[in-house]
Each structure stands twice: as C-alpha cells, then as structure tokens.
UniProtKB/TrEMBL annotation:
The organism of origin for this protein: Methylomonas aurea
Keyword Nucleus: no
InterPro entries, sorted: MFS_trans_sf, SAM-dependent_MTases_sf
Protein's UniProt name: Fused MFS/spermidine synthase
Transmembrane segments: 12-31, 51-70, 82-103, 115-134, 155-175, 187-208, 234-254, 260-283, 290-308, 320-338, 350-373, 398-418, 425-443, 449-473
Signal sequence, start to end: none
Gene3D superfamilies: MFS general substrate transporter like domains, Vaccinia Virus protein VP39
Keywords: Membrane, Polyamine biosynthesis, Transmembrane, Transmembrane helix
Origin superkingdom: Bacteria
C-alpha cells in the first residue's frame, strides 16, 4: 500500500525514533504553551473562564491553518522544496522568541474583548504556535514515505503526539506551575522551541534522502487510491466538531464554579487528548464496544442527577459524573473518526478536516453561542448531538426511531400549556423526567431515538429549572451568565415577601427585599449584622468624608452604606453588571442610596493603577467570577497596589467567601510577608434573619492600632489570621491552588 520505494540500505537507527521523538516534543511544547499563556492573560480580563475558551479558539484556528499548510506543502512540492520552504518558516518564526505579551497589551473597557484577545495571542505566540501546529500532519506524511515496514499506516504516531500532549498537561499543574514562575516558564519554553526546530530539520533531511531520486519540483505521485467522498468528509467534520464544542462547554461549567485557573481547565482537555491516544492505539477495536455500551448506561445517571435533580449530589460527585459522561461521548465520536480514517495518501486531508471541525466547534462556543443563547445551552445541545453520532444512525427503520420521543414531547407540551398551576407539580414532573431518563437506556441501539428523547428530557429540564427559579431577566456576556430571579421568602412576621436576587452563573451575588421598609437594607454578604456592616458601624464616627473604592458592584447593596460627604467609586469589569444594578426595575440600591457613585468599567487592577496614590480611606475587594475570586487580585503585587492607593490609616476589606478554596491562607501569607496587620471574621448569623448569609471577610491595615476597634468590637468575632507554613507566596509570576484546597 506504500507508494514509496524501499531504500537499498537499512538505516542504523530506525526512522521511527526521530519522528516519534519530534512529534512527542512538538505536542509537549504545544500543550505547555496553552495553559501557560492562558494564565499570563488572565489578569488582563478579570479571570473569567471565557479567557480560556477564547484562547482555545485561537489555538484551534492556528491548528487548522497549520494542518492546511501541511496539506498544501506535502501535496504540491517534492521533498527538497518542502524542506527548503519549511526551513525558511522555522527561521522566520524565531523572531517571536522569547514568547511574551506585547508591551502595550491593554484590553478594551467597552464591548466584547474577544477579538482583542485573539489579536494579542497572534502577536505574542502566533508564529511559534503555527509551526508547532504543522508538525503532526507533516511529519506523519514524511514518515509514510520513509520505507519503514510500518509506514503504510503512520496513524499510530498520532498516539505518540497525544501522549506528549497528555504528559505536558499533567506536568503543568503538578510539576511546572508549582516550581517555575511564568518568566522562567517562558524562557524554558523558548529554548525548547529552538530544540524542536532542530529535530524537525533532522526528520526533514531523513525524508529528503529517502526521496532523493525525485526531482526537486516534482509533485508527489498519486497512489491510485480513491479520494474520500464529500459525505465521508462531512462525517469526519461532525465527529470532530461535537467533541470540540463539548470540550469548551464542559470547561465553562467547571471553571465558572471552582476557579478560573489552568489546573481545572486542564482536566477536560486531558480527557479529550486521552481519547485520541486510545482510539488510535492497538486497543481501539477492543475498547470500542465497551465505550458504546457504557455511554447510554452512564447517560441515564448523568441526566437524572446532573441535570434533572443536581441538588441531591455533592458538588465533587456531580463534577465527576460530568467528566465521565464527557469522556464516553468523546470516546465514541473519536472512535468512529479513527475507524473511518483514510489511506495515508490522504492523511493530511483527514487531519485538515479534523482541525477545521475543531476550529468550528470553538468558534461556535465562543462567537455564536453567546449571541444566540442567554445561557450555556450549547453544552446540552452537544450532549444530544454526540448521541446522534453513535453508529447505526440509518440502520433498520430509522425513520420510526423519533416516534416515542415525539410522543413524550407532545404530552409534555400539552401538560405545560394546559396547567396553570404547574409550579405545584414540579416534584411530580421531575420524577417523571427521571423515570424517562431510565427508559432512555432501552433505546441505546437507536441513535435517533436515544438522542431525540435525551433532547426532549433536557428541554423540559431546563424549562423546569427556569420555572422553579422564577427568572425575570437573563443575559450573557463575555464574563458569564447574569440573571435576576424573583424569590418569595417569609418576613419577620412569617408572611410571604417578594425578593429580587442577582446570580452570576450558579452563585448568588446579591438580593433586595421589595417591601418599603427594607428597600435600602443591604443583604446577603453585605448585611449590617455581617462583617462589612460591622466595619461601617465601628468607624461610623469618622467616615463622614471618606473616599471609598469598591471592586465588584453586584446588585449595588454596598451603596446603601453611603453617607453625604463621602465619595464612592465602584470598579466593575462587566458592563452588564452595571446595567443591571443601575436599572430600578431589578435593583434600586444605587438609585435610592448613592445615585452619584462613580462607575469605572474595566479590570480592577488596571483601573486602580490609574487612581491617585494615597487617595482612599477604604477599599472593599469583592470581585468574583461566579464563586471564584480572580487569582490575579490575590497576589502580593495586587496587595501592594491596594496599599499604594490607600492612605496611611486606610483599611482594606477583602471578601474571601469560597466553597472550595481556603483563601485566608493566601491572605495570611501576604500579611506576614508585607508586615501588615489583619483580622478575620468567618461570620455565621446567630438568628434566622432572611437573606443574611454566612460570609468570610478579612480587614487589613498597616498599623495594629487601626484595627483595635474591630478586635474589641462586641458586634462580631474578629480574630487574627491563622499562621501558614509551607505555602509558596502568590505573586503575579506564581499562583497555585492545590495548597489551599479545602
């Protein structure tokens, strides 16, 4: 099947070794660069998970262009000309070394920063990443002409490439990130890139010698193999598109609710790469039936608990269930993709279609979905699409498969539109949906029926949650999904009272009671009995003319601590949050308490850097992306910036409530290293007051005398921060969350 001629003399070293080593090194560099540069860019855009998803789109686009280049080069030119052109590209790409952000990298404060982010990535790492992207298809094509006994099916080298990717991803959070700062990482990566270029040249020379009998400008001969049909290429496209979109959808889910750091972004990407290693390995045929059987079995539990009734599972178990369901879906799609791979003559075409589909998946999640959907609906849509791509789509009487899902949909719609008291039957409807999720397993041999029924279940589930949440307003921006919900609570007299609540992702970011006597009462994490309320109460006698800065606006509850004579500045990265907080239809804290408050839109650190030094009496740090505090606001340099903007007797109040991370350890280390004084209160309400929540705050000052009033306060239980041992200080060059995981 190999179209090349065998060489007369056997090489002393198998050509597999340099080719496999180069592919391994290339993949390693590629997948170290991805989390490294994602982490470098995080501080510029508030730590939002959309930064990583946008980076993924850039990487997928460059990967497609690299594969397109490899296909063009290998199909149009002879061996010597290929080597000449690629060598010139390698030399030209060296002008981008060492990789670093452009000097004037400042994101826009208005509008969506996606295009700015992609342009910045292109300037910083575009050329080196493009070269690395060309390596896998080009070297496999070169190897197919090496005359080696395995060159007739060089796809197994793709497993070596993905093994390097997997090793790099696992090494980053556990070896590279804990031991090397970002500056050192950039320099080491640049040195590794030079080594990769040398390895590519070694492989190129080997390829050229094997093809020395061909003219320099001769196009490689056609092997007489039928090219893949358009239908087959569209099938490849679908099988690669859905896993790519699923990857970004799951990443959005994970990084919104834990922390926007590369450690957690790496988990789904690691599983994604592992599927490629397995489906292109010698175990693929044995694994395929097991994956096909496991997917619908896990799907039943996944739909029942992660979507229909997620509150019954602990968060970590729900996360594991999402990851298992994702892995099985991608294994099935990639398994079918590997099973239908073409003859090596069309290897670069195969990889080109794969990379194009991956790019389309990223573009769909990053550019299309946020403008079409007001929530992350692309994730459940792709779960259904993955089921439709199971083998056997047109087997048997395929046109009869959607009948049962259609009946379920029709019955559900009749119930929905005919019942005026649907809310009273939510538990019953939820039970019926769980029962139908179990029934779906019986349809495992019918992709259309299984996918359609799952789609119907997810449709009603999302509608059920929306109905139960009483969503009044929901919108999506680059920084996440913002929603306003209408909730009924009992008041002090146990009478029902309507409350508006603000959610970012799945985390409550503020609430307002709508009864006349409570319209200006700060609630949730900002309540008067809570730590921040105690701070304003203890300094009530001296704060009439304070200059106050608050990072993070939320619903605007903090504005109701305003006094005439004070000047307040709110720093908020998301323009949508400002729009919601200033709209009295949703929340009236700002309009009633402090309508003249100054609003500064943009990343807090970049905005605060422009403020006058020693100008603030109080800085309140309350920036969150769902439940995660952006890590760049927690570094030593960040604290140094805050105190540069505070007066000598100024106070820094830091909100550190978090379900998963013990942020007090980071704060304690900074306080110790910078010779500051701090008090911590882990507040738990003593009485059942509506919407007064448990919350953790740290107050920091330069002098211990400044905090004596709080320490002696009878309003709350303020205490010294706990001592920390063995925690490497968080800096702009180094952050690592494993040491502070709860």
């Amino acid at each position: 099947m190999n179209s090349t001629q065998q060489t007369n003399s056997q090489p002393s070293i198998s050509p597999v070794i340099p080719f496999a080593a180069t592919l391994f090194a290339s993949a390693t560099l590629m997948f170290v660069l991805q989390p490294m540069f994602g982490k470098i860019l995080l501080p510029l855009l508030g730590g939002t998970p959309a930064v990583w998803n946008t980076c993924m789109v850039f990487y997928q686009t460059l990967l497609f262009l690299g594969y397109l280049y490899a296909d063009w080069l290998s199909s149009r030119f002879g061996s010597q000309r290929q080597l000449q052109i690629h060598t010139a590209l390698l030399i030209f790409s060296a002008i981008a070394l060492p990789v670093a952000l452009p000097a004037d990298a400042t994101p826009p404060t208005a509008g969506n920063p996606t295009l700015w982010l992609i342009w910045t990535l292109f300037l910083a790492i575009g050329l080196p990443f493009f070269v690395v992207s060309t390596t896998a298809p080009l070297l496999q094509k070169w190897f197919s002409h090496s005359g080696h006994h395995s060159s007739g099916d060089p796809y197994y080298l793709y497993a070596a490439s993905n093994a390097g990717s997997l090793l790099a991803l696992l090494s980053y959070p556990f070896l590279i990130e804990p031991n090397l700062g970002l500056t050192t990482q950039r320099l080491v990566w640049s040195g590794g890139y030079v080594g990769l270029c040398l390895l590519i040249l070694v492989c190129g020379i080997s390829f050229w010698r094997n093809q020395a009998d061909k003219a320099d400008d001769e196009v490689l001969a056609d092997a007489g193999i039928e090219p893949p049909s358009t239908l087959q290429q569209l099938h490849w496209l679908a099988l690669a598109f859905v896993p790519s979109s699923l990857l970004l959808g799951l990443t959005q889910f994970i990084s919104t609710d834990i922390a926007a750091v590369p450690l957690l972004w790496i988990v789904p990407l690691t599983l994604y790469l592992l599927t490629f290693i397995l489906v292109f390995s010698t175990w693929a045929d044995r694994l395929r039936p097991w994956m096909l059987a496991a997917q619908p079995a896990v799907l039943t539990v996944f739909i029942a608990y992660s979507f229909i009734n997620p509150a019954t599972l602990p968060y970590w178990l729900d996360l594991i269930l999402h990851l298992i369901a994702f892995f099985l879906a991608v294994m099935v799609c990639h398994g079918e993709l590997a099973k239908s791979r073409p003859h090596p003559q069309y290897l670069t075409r195969f990889y080109l279609v794969m990379s194009f589909a991956g790019m389309l998946g990223g573009l769909f999640n990053t550019f299309v979905a946020p403008f079409v959907f007001n929530s992350v609906y692309e994730y459940p849509i792709m779960i259904v699409a993955a089921l439709l791509l199971r083998p056997g789509f047109f087997d048997g009487k395929w046109f009869l498969q959607p009948i049962f899902p259609a009946v379920v949909l029709a019955v559900g719609l009749v119930v929905y539109f005919s019942s005026r008291e649907l809310f009273d039957y939510l538990d019953l409807i939820g039970g019926a949906l769980i029962l139908l999720a179990g029934v779906s397993y019986a349809l495992r041999h019918s992709p259309i029926a299984l996918g359609s029924l799952t789609g119907v279940l997810l449709l009603f589930t999302l509608g059920l949650h929306s109905l139960a949440s009483n969503i009044l307003y929901q919108e999506r921006s680059f920084f996440g999904v913002m929603s306003v919900r209408d909730t009924v609570i009992p008041d002090e007299n146990q009478k029902p009272e309507t409350v508006h609540e603000l959610y970012h992702g799945t985390t409550k970011h503020g609430a307002q009671r709508l009864t006349p006597g409570n319209l200006t009462t700060p609630l949730t994490y900002y309540s008067k009995p809570g730590p921040i309320g105690q701070v304003f109460a203890e300094f009530d006698a001296e704060n009439q003319h304070w200059n106050i800065g608050a990072v993070g606006l939320g619903a605007g509850a903090l504005a109701c601590y305003f006094k005439p004579g004070q000047h307040w500045t709110f720093y908020e990265i998301d323009p949508l949050v400002v729009e919601v907080a200033q709209n009295p239809k949703w929340f009236s804290y700002l309009s009633r308490c402090n309508p003249q408050a100054e609003m500064v839109v943009g990343d807090a650190r970049l905005s605060l850097a422009k403020a006058a030094d020693r100008s603030f009496d109080l800085l309140v740090m309350d920036a969150f992306s769902s439940d995660a505090v952006p890590t760049h606001l927690l570094t030593r340099e960040a604290l140094e910036l805050y105190f540069a903007k505070l007066k000598d007797d100024g106070l820094l109040a830091f909100h550190i409530t978090n379900r998963h991370l013990a942020l007090k350890k980071v704060m304690a280390d900074h306080v110790n290293q910078l010779h500051l004084e701090a008090l911590l209160q882990e507040f738990k309400p003593e009485t059942d007051v509506p919407l007064v929540l448990a919350t953790d705050w740290v107050v920091i000052a330069k002098n211990p005398e400044r905090l004596q009033r709080l320490q002696q306060s009878r309003l709350g239980h303020w205490q010294k921060l706990p001592l920390t041992f063995g925690l490497q200080p968080w800096t702009d060059d180094f952050t690592h969350i494993i040491g502070i995981w709860k």
